[in-house]
Structure formats: C-alpha cells, structure tokens
Q: What sequence folds into this?
C-alpha cells in the first residue's frame, strides 16, 4: 500500500517549519512529502528593507531548503494556482509555465500573502512593492539609478522628480523601507558632488492616523521622531489618489514630481485561497484552532493565508499575519498532521505574542519585547538579535552577521547590478497575481488528472 501523500503549498515561515518538523518526526516510509514553491529557499522577509538598502546581500536572507541533513521532501518548482478539495487535486504552474496536477491525501495551504492593492489609477503600472527578493533587489537598483540619472541631467525639473521618493504604508515594512533607503541615499549623496543634498526628499504616507499603532503611542512617537529627524516627511491620514510615470497625486490634493513610488500598504491572502470557494475572514481561510478547513477532508491552512483563531486573546480574534505566528503554527501543523496519520487527537494552536521589533537602520530602532518598550541602541540590539536568532541555518546567521559587521566598518556601497535596468517592472511582474485559475478551469484540470490516474 502506498504511503499517504502530504502536499505543502508555500515555502514561507509556516510551510518550511511544517516540512522540517515532518522530516524530523515522521518515520521513513510513513508518508511522502512534497513542497510546492517557485524557489528552493525560504525568504527571511523581515530583512528585505536591509537588502534594498544594501546592508545585506540577497543570498544572506534566502535560506536554502536543500541544506538540511534530513532533506527528503520532493520540491516541485512552481506555484499552486488552484485546488479541488473534493477530488483532492492541486493544480500547479511550474516555473516553465507547464501546468501539472498533483494528487494528495493531506494538503497544507501555507501560500502566504501578496501585496494588497486598491483600484487607484496608475498604481499597478507605476508602483514597486517590497514583498519578494527580486523586488528588494530591483528597488535598490532603481533608487541608485535615480541618483545616477539626476547627476547626469541638465534639466532641473528632471533632477527634482528623480530625487523625490514616496513610500506608501506606515506599518513595519513601509517604515523600515523608508528609513533604510533614506539612510542609503543620505550616505550616497557625498559621492555625487553635482547634486544638492537638499533636493533628496523622502515621503512616508499612510491613511491611518498613527504610525505603527501596534507599538503604542510612546514608541510610535519615538519612531516618528527618528524619521522626522532624518528629514523624512511623514503624512498621516493621506494616501495616493493617482500615480503616473513622473508624478504622484495625494488624496489631500498635493501633486509631487516623483519617479519612485514604493507601495507597502498591507498584505492580502494569496489569490489561491479564492479558488477553494470556502468561507473566509477578511480574505483569509476560516479554519479551526487545529488549522483544519471545515467541510474539506485532509485540508489544513495556516500563516498569512488562514484566519487561525487567536485563543490567547479570545473574543473571536485571529492571529495576525506575522512571522512569529507563522513559524509556531508550522510546528503545531506538523504535529497535527502526524496525529492525523496515527489516528491521534489534534491540538489547538495557542501562542502568546512575543512582541515587536522595528529596525530603522544604523543605531535607530524601536522594540517591544514581551511588553517592554525600548528605543535607540537597546532596541537595535533586541531587533537584530531577534532576527539573527530566527534565521534557520548557521550559514545564514554567519552571512548576516558578516554583512552587518562589514557595513558597520566599511559603510554602504552604491553599485547597481543592472537588474531589469531596461524594463520598468510592476507589482504583477514580481508577484504573479494574475496567474490563478477560475473554478471552471480547475475542474477541467481535475477531470484530466482523474482520467490519467
């Protein structure tokens, strides 16, 4: 009799933690494990702003999935674009664009999230995100290119537009991105003697009335003070009304000459979730505390893609889409899968929030570990210590620590790699949000898979 087939979709924090625990705790031959992911690495997403600013190299935050001594998972290079829970078939688009089907007995949906966008004219065509490794590398090249082009230009209007940068989103990603990239351009301007440093202007805007409200008023104000001390203009209660190639229009009526719009205004669950036709909570799959999808045999979901009940808070709360929850859910998910295989009871996911860390670059940070409010160097030590300890392999830890030390001693470099230098890239180019199937298309692929089987 063939062993049960476990299919894990997504190699983020949740998916990788689940797979690694399964590899450690399942006996050889007890189950077959397959992982669907476009890339055979786990991306340490919280450090992407430091990749964009050049403090860290891209490979230092891309942790190989094949370095584990216990590695026995079959990696399918592609992305899941549809799931038929009745037929127990997942439709996958491989990186070659070939569409294949994969049958399963148990499926773990850890498909993560994509950048949340709105119906704003020009947004999808002119904004860049900060959700993938390629986006971070592209944004770095783009920002440095604006300095190079402004330095070469004889047109004052062009110079002004190239040296204004807008980041939308006052959460962790947006705040850290604005802070880290502003520090990069401030350090770089010394190498551009023809440019007036006063022309470089960074803008951070958010529709919310407060910056990172999860931090509380005191730390939120401390972060705001750091940004304003660096001459980052922070506008709250404001968003984007329209985006164009050379200007951005704010909802308060301001029109800003600008060729760099970075969009980090939240995330939404992967479009894969909509292909299941199941109940959702704010776009995330509604699951039980054991992370099972009600009414679907052998289907589990966790991480950013699922609305896992937060039993520690109660009152109908769901766990926020953070790395710390995803990692811990992954471990419980693996234990529940093993329990299912062995006909044992499943356990609920219960976890108390460990706190928040926000690295603003250099010596600046704000942190709230276990409710203790910190800012400045102590907060920076906590923030970097947390990120460093969360990296999965010693190789990744060594690379990150080496990059931090090298940056502290030698400073920033301002080299462009030429990544997509001749073709402007959009949000769709990096996140492939238009690649998913309709229910009818999924049924067609399911039917063909059934015939072949």
A:
């Amino acid at each position: 009799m063939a062993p049960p087939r476990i299919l894990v979709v997504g190699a983020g924090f949740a998916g990788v933690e689940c797979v690694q625990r399964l590899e450690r705790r399942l006996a050889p031959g007890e189950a077959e494990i397959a992982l669907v992911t476009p890339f055979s690495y786990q991306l340490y997403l919280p450090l992407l702003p430091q990749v964009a600013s050049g403090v860290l190299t891209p490979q230092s935050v891309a942790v190989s999935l094949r370095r584990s001594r216990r590695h026995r998972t079959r990696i399918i290079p592609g992305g899941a674009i549809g799931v038929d829970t009745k037929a127990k078939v997942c439709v996958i688009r491989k990186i070659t664009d070939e569409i294949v089907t994969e049958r399963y007995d148990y499926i773990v949906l850890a498909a993560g999230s994509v950048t949340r966008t709105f119906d704003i004219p020009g947004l999808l065509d002119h904004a860049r995100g900060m959700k993938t490794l390629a986006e971070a590398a592209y944004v770095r090249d783009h920002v440095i290119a604006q300095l190079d082009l402004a330095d070469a230009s004889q047109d004052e209007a062009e110079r002004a537009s190239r040296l204004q940068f807008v980041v939308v989103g006052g959460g962790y990603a947006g705040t850290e991105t604005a802070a880290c990239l502003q520090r990069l351009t401030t350090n770089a301007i010394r190498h551009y003697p023809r440019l007036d440093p006063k022309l470089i202007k960074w803008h951070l805007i958010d529709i919310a009335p407060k910056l990172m409200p999860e931090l509380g008023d005191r730390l939120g104000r401390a972060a705001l003070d750091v940004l304003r001390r660096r001459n980052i203009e922070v506008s709250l209660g404001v968003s984007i009304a329209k985006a164009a190639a050379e200007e951005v229009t704010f909802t308060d009526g301001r029109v800003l000459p600008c060729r760099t719009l970075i969009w980090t205004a939240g995330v939404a669950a992967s479009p894969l979730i909509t292909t299941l036709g199941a109940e959702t909570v704010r776009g995330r799959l509604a699951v039980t505390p054991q992370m099972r999808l009600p009414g679907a045999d052998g289907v589990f979901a966790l991480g950013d893609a699922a609305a896992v009940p937060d039993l520690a808070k109660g009152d109908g709360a769901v766990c926020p889409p953070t790395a710390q929850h995803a990692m811990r859910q992954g471990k419980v998910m693996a234990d529940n899968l093993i329990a299912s295989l062995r006909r044992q009871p499943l356990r609920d996911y219960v976890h108390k929030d460990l706190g928040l860390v926000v690295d603003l670059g250099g010596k600046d940070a704000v942190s709230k570990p276990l409710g203790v409010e910190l800012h400045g160097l102590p907060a920076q030590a906590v923030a970097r210590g947390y990120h460093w300890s969360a990296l999965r392999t010693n190789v990744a830890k060594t690379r990150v620590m080496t990059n931090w030390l090298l940056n502290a001693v030698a400073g920033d470099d301002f080299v462009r790699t030429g990544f997509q230098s001749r073709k402007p890239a959009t949000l769709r180019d990096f996140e492939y949000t238009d690649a998913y199937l309709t229910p009818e298309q999924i049924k067609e692929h399911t039917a063909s898979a059934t015939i072949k089987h």
Residues 176 and 360 are 5 Å apart (CA to CA). The mean pLDDT is 92. The chain is about 35% helix and 25% strand. The longest helix spans residues 133-152.
